[in-house]
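Researcher: I'm comparing several assemblies side by side, and this is the next one on my list. It has 243 residues spread over two chains. Same procedure as the others: predict the full complex and return the structure.
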Amino acid sequence: MLTLHPALRDKIVAHARADHPDEACGVIAGPAGQDRPERFIPMLNAQRSPTFYEFDSMELFRVWREMDDRDEEPAVIYHSHTATEAYPSRTDISYANEPGAHYVLVSTRDPDTAEFRSFRIVDGTVTEEEVRITDDVLGDPSHTPAGPGLE
Amino acid sequence: MAIEVRIPTILRTYTGGAKAVEGSGATIAELIGDLDARYGGLRDRLQDEAGLRRFVNVYLNDEDVRFLGGLETPVKDGDTVTVLPAVAGGAG
């Protein structure tokens, strides 16, 4: 199950809407080993494509080094699909290399509603999980500063 | 000679769980060969017939080696090499 503060859910959806029709992507970091997504880090989609995303390699390096220094992990890795459902594609599964992360998918194919779903992807197997949006979480992540992807 | 190599979560099954290992070599290619001799199968995850795998990022200190010399990038004692799988995907 993914437990997420509503402010973080809103930030993910807003990022996806802002980048539509290109796919948006990013991370929510949290303290290592605690399954607590807290720090929203939108990332640049280096492919700038409506059907592919890839973190820029130097941003990836900086963000992963920063998480390591702060004893954090990528609790959530999110991206959007802009014309198809919010379900992991074969490509999504091939490149899912963080077995501890919640893989969040948003679909912006409908202008009025955003589909928001979460999955575990481990050893090529996708398992959908419940998403619990609640502000009953430790700390208040609604005021975290924006990361490298947005100015 | 010691070059620190930082190993991503997904490849720690090859290193017995170690986040960082030491290796030696004059180039990235030699370093990978040296690691593969002790952690069999690691080379295959990092390179294919064409060179470094497209969706694996390798950094020498703070630079992506694809902007240096790829597999032929020289390395020296005291360098840190970091491996990070690409974070990628998409509907297409």
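Model: For your comparison table: Residues 6 and 82 of chain B are 5 Å apart (CA to CA).
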